[in-house]
Amino acid sequence: MRDDRPGAEDPVTPEIAEVLVANHRDFLRFVERRIGDRALAEEIVQDAFVRSLDRGDEIRDSAVGWFYRVLRNAVIDHQRRQTVAARRLEQFAAELGSSGEADEELAKVACRCVLELAGTLKPEYSDALRRIDVDQVAVKDYAAANGISPNNAGVRIFRAREALRKQLARSCGTCAEHGCLDCTCHASNRP
């Protein structure tokens, strides 16, 4: 079924589609060599196949040669997107790095509030949270200092964080769920 409207594109014929599918492994190797990631290469090839189905009118001589050009352009587009994403990530990291003072103040406020709530938990949970999350002691070092296995310490900090999360939700309500950092909760509101 052909679309004769002006600007309509001819679909790839079943014969051409069969040739392209028969060369799938070669196409995949071509992209993988340039990308370095098999899963991503498969995604790019599949996407190129799908986008090419309605572009049969662009094939002049060899369907395989034409598809290699399509893949080359897809790889170039992918690399451009990666470059832009990396640049944006670097800019974001630079912004975070330049706002150190505000982050320190925010950490002090959040830590003060959280430490008050942590004090309402079991003593071993409160201690684990202070040492591991606030003082940045490694879990294995915390375990050694407390005479427990690293696995036990991992379970303890997991349970402590869950208990703190529940306590925070009880104390601060929806404020905690939505990430409110301007804590206006008062000690009188806490259990």
- Helical content (DSSP H or I, runs of 4+): over 70%
Secondary-structure content class: mainly alpha
- β-strand amount: under 5%
Secondary-structure element order, N to C: HHHHHHHHH
Summed up, the domain count is 2
C-alpha-based Rg, rounded: 29 Å
As for the CATH topology of the largest domain, it is Arc Repressor Mutant, subunit A
What is the level-2 CATH architecture name of the largest domain?
Answer: Orthogonal Bundle
Output mean pLDDT. Answer: 78
Q: What can you see in these coordinates?
A:
The structure is a single chain. This protein has 191 residues and is mainly α. The chain folds into 2 domains: 14-97, Rna Polymerase Sigma Factor, Chain: A (Orthogonal Bundle); 100-189, Arc Repressor Mutant, subunit A, CATH 1.10.10. It has 9 helices and no strands. The protein is elongated, with a radius of gyration of 29 Å. The termini are far apart. Mean pLDDT is 78; it is low at 1-8 and 186-191.
Descriptors:
single chain; 191 residues; Rna Polymerase Sigma Factor, Chain: A; Arc Repressor Mutant, subunit A; 72% helix; elongated; disordered N terminus
List the helices and strands and how they pair.
Elements: H1 14-22, H2 24-35, H3 38-52, H4 63-98, H5 100-118, H6 123-134, H7 139-146, H8 150-172, H9 174-177
Task: Provide a brief overview of the structure.
With 191 residues, this protein is mainly alpha-helical. It is 72% helix and 0% strand.
